[in-house]
Amino acid sequence: MITLRYFASLRETLGRSTEQLEIFELHTVLSVWRLVNPDFSLPENTLTAVNMDYVPQSHLVKNGDEVAFFPPVTGG
């Protein structure tokens, strides 16, 4: 089981801040996103973290991991 966390505008767009997913094979951070959000592309420049460490979207995820998605920040 992995825990997924969504922050800021991603949380608002998806309508949830957290969820759990049972996986039975290796997945990358990006493939996990595609499994649980097939109708939404991962926005460009989204930061991803596994177990509180920033990682590339190609990072492999295993059971017990926490995966977090941080949308790009805009400012003015």
Description:
The structure is a single chain. The protein starts with a strand and ends in a 6-residue tail after the last strand. The longest helix has 8 residues, at 29-36. A hairpin with a 2-residue loop joins strand 4 (47-50) and strand 5 (53-55). The chain has 76 residues and is an alpha+beta fold. It has two helices and seven strands.
Sum this structure up briefly.
The protein is an alpha+beta fold. The chain is built from 2 helices and 7 strands, in the order E-H-E-E-H-E-E-E-E.
Give the arrangement of secondary structure elements.
Elements: E1 2-6, H1 9-14, E2 18-21, E3 27-28, H2 29-36, E4 47-50, E5 53-55, E6 60-61, E7 66-70
Poorly predicted runs of 5 or more residues: none
Whole-number mean pLDDT: 93
Per CATH, the superfamily is: Beta-grasp domain
Shape summary:
globular
Reading off the top of the CATH hierarchy, the class is best stated as Alpha Beta
- Distance N terminus to C terminus? 39 Å
Number of domains: 1
Question: Key terms for this structure?
Answer:
alpha+beta; 76 residues; Ubiquitin-like (UB roll)
